[in-house]
Amino acid sequence: MGTLGAYDATAYAINTAGEIVGSRRFYNPPILDRSEAYIRNTAGGITSFGTAGAFSTNFAVDINDNGDVVGVANNIAFIRHPGGNLIELGTLGGSTSEATGVNDLGFVTGNSVNSLGEIHAFFGNEAGLIDLGTLGGAGARSFGYGINDNNQIVGLSEDAEGITRAFYWDETDGMLDLSSLVSNISGWDRLIEARDISDTGYIVGTGITSSGVERAFLLTPFDPPVELIVDNTGVCIGPVAAWIPINYDILFFIPGPGVNWTLETVLNDKYGQDYYSLSGGSNNGKPEFEWSFTVPTTGVYAVDAWWPQDSNGTTSANYTVTSTFGDTVVTVQQNINGSQWNELGNYTFDEGQTYHVTLSAPSGEPVIADAIRVRN
Question: Residue 8: CB partners within 8 Å, gap ≥ 6?
């Protein structure tokens, strides 16, 4: 691209159409030192824009797939729609601001001086800017760099001692230390800045390794493991991963005619505080005890059952697992393998649907209903 007819030139961003934005500098001291924002189209044509003046500074920093450009013109953040003029985005109450990222929805991130003279990252559009705050500490400041179409923002927060930490921000959870969200950060001291985030959640930036060396990083999104346990009294424990919300229905059981389940605590190695037992079997093998649950995402999950150790337990406990593809009956011996999780198989469950595990046993045989577990 060369200098684009100027003293020098810098390119900052490109969109999927191949449009490039940046800044070119015209330099002829002492009478001229002006930076112009520009957009270069796929045919190589250059369009300059920004504030006039021999010593004006204009930088186009990012462009989305709609052709909206953001940057800074004489110390104020702007957005420019295709073919239009610069629209100032204002500040957080201070004197300066700059826009560094724009998504395809037209929302912008960057940083601005607020009314207290502090530099804070922001999120917003032409209707106004929201102060994202910092990760804490007196005299801290923050800078927003990347924003995706989910309005998730990444950047850095710096304390008064100059220690920087990469942050992640969204409209639900606010600003969070990105290092605390990584499942395995062994080998790293901390992540010091995050520069961009894709629509699918990939994040790039810079961190410091355990040996004190600065290195680039790539964070890959994944579905954290889910572990959902429903106990016999309807207590649900889970999930293991804090970012996966789990909805569940409490346990309920359907007794057959004249059949009564007894809540007991006698046997050792039960899951939780108690369990239900039925000394005479369950109404000729019909499903009598039912656990109910939903999963956070569609996928294949392992289902396990727990019962306390009891040598007098039934040799034919029938667990029926309802899944996407129908019912599967798994017969186990409850007189062995107690006080541990026993796998009933792997099953496909759909997000948002309610599924069940039911338990029955032949008439006349004792059966115990304690807990089931669903995991991936």
Answer: 24, 25, 27
What is the reported pLDDT for 145? 97
Number of H helices, E strands in the chain: 0, 32
Residue 214 in domain = yes
CB atoms within 10 A of CB 164: 21
Number of domains making up the chain: 2
Whether the CA torsion 102, 105, 111, 112 is positive or negative: it is: positive
Most trustworthy range by pLDDT among 35-44, 124-133, 253-262: 124-133
Q: Do 240 and 191 reside in the same domain of the chain?
A: no
Pairing of strands 46-49, 32-40: antiparallel
Would you say 362 and 283 are in contact if contact means Cβ atoms under 8 Å apart? no
Residue 194 structural domain: 8-219
Task: Please name which of 338, 340, 332, 339 lies closest in space to residue 315, comparing C-alpha atoms.
Answer: 332
**Using CA atoms, how far apart are residues 142 and 166, in angstroms rounded to an integer?**
9
| 278 has pLDDT over 60 | yes
* Same-domain pairing of 175 and 301: no
116 band by pLDDT with thresholds 50, 70 and 90: very high
First to last CA, the chain: 50
CA 178, CA 196: separation in Å to the nearest integer?
12
Last residue of a domain, one of 219, 250, 281: 219
Q: In this structure, is the dihedral angle defined by the CA atoms of residues 270, 271, 275 and 279, taken in order, positive or negative? A: negative
Pick the last residue of a domain from 190, 219, 248.
219
339, 269 contact by CB (below 8 A)? yes
Please state the pTM of the whole predicted model.
Answer: 0.62
135 and 31 in one domain? yes
